[in-house]
Amino acid sequence: MARSLLKAKKLPKQYWAEAVSCAVYLLNRCPTRSLEAITPEEAWSGHKPSATHLRVFGCVAYTKIPDARRIKLDDKSEKCIFVGYGDRRMGYKLSNPITKKVIMSRDVIFEEDKTWQWNDDQEAVK
User: Fold this and answer.
1) Is the separation of the CB atoms in 107 and 51 below 8 Å?
2) Beta bridge partners of 118
3) CA geometry: angle at 103 spanning 93 and 109, to 5°?
4) Which stretch of DSSP H or E encloses residue 79?
5) Which of 18, 54, 60, 98 could form a disulfide with 114 if both were Cys (CB 3.0 to 4.6 A apart)?
6) Which residues contact 104 (CB under 8 A, 6 or more apart)?
7) Is 92:104 a contact under the CB 8 Å cutoff?
8) For the chain, which residues score pLDDT lower than 50?
9) CA nearest 22: which of 30, 34, 10?
């Protein structure tokens, strides 16, 4: 499943850990035969998980830059790649391949049909 997530959006192999983590997150929210029509998340926590927050792995996402981190004429958003979901708190995990930083954010706009552009050396193109 992780390989399929990477290949669908043509992401380089450096994102394999995020793809595996996202695959586990998704599998825990899918029904299984062994649990008789409930999900592993529901068996563990006791409540039925929601699927409204799920997004396409590897799509282009824009996160809001807080007012405190920018000045008047700076950009209000940053272009990133969606690479997963928050582990301990609500939010989306985003990677900026230009700065090589991972960001957790709740203020995100997704373009699920778009992919990030890479050159032949798997370097990010702005």
Assistant:
1) no
2) 124
3) 65
4) strand 77-85
5) 60
6) 86, 89, 91, 92, 93, 94
7) yes
8) none
9) 30
Report the pLDDT value the prediction gives residue 30, as an integer from 0 to 100: 86
CA distance 40 to 56: 21
Phi, psi of 65 (to 5 degrees): -90, 125
Q: Give pLDDT, residue 37.
A: 79
| 15/33 Cα distance (integer angstroms) | 30
**Type of residue numbered 1:** M
Q: What is the pLDDT of residue 122?
A: 65
Residues 35-53: b if buried by 16+ CB within 10 A, e if exposed: eeeebbbbeeeeeeeeeee
Where helices occur in 49-94 by DSSP H, the ranges are none
**Residue written as token pair 């062994």:** 34
Read off the pTM.
0.85
Per DSSP, the residues of the chain read -HHHHHHHTT--GGGHHHHHHHHHHHHTTS--TTTTSS-HHHHHHSSPPP-TT---TTEEEEEEPPGGG--TTS-SEEEEEEEEE-SSSSSEEEEETTTTEEEEES-EEEEEEEE--B-TTS-B--
